[in-house]
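Narrative of accomplishments. A recurring question from our advisory board has been how the design workflow behaves on a single, concrete structure rather than in aggregate. To address it, we present the structure tokens for one chain from the evaluation set, followed by the sequence designed for it. No filtering or post-editing was applied between the two.
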């Protein structure tokens, strides 16, 4: 669901389908994938892995690379990592504590293909 079909830099890009086999190459390379527990204890630390290029490797060259990755809980900002080309890869592990059960969502920005949003990852708080 893109705001502007012909302009990757207008709005936020998101794959139409969650299943990787239904994604096109651009969606596979750019959709951030969140790995986190299905349920966690309120206020207790847990790990969240976010990876760009899990379904198809994204280039990591000086002229084409992932510039940053951000993690949110609902609308609440949790963290951001900036990358340089070639020397770092867009795979990050955050340590998170949640007081509210908002779904996790990640954004990444590619210098050639704009900003991309992950699918929401629901977290059940115990
Ligand atoms: Fe790209």
């Amino acid at each position: 669901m893109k705001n502007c079909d012909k302009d990757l830099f207008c709005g936020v890009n998101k794959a139409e389908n969650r299943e990787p086999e239904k994604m096109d190459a651009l969606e596979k390379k750019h959709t951030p994938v969140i790995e986190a527990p299905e349920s966690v204890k309120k206020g207790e630390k847990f790990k969240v892995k976010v990876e760009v290029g899990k379904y198809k490797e994204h280039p990591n060259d000086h002229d084409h690379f992932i510039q940053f990755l951000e993690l949110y809980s609902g609308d609440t900002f949790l963290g951001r990592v900036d990358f340089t080309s070639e020397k770092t890869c867009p795979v990050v592990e955050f340590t998170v504590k949640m007081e509210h059960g908002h779904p996790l969502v990640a954004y990444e920005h590619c210098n050639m293909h704009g900003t991309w949003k992950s699918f929401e990852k629901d977290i059940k708080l115990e």
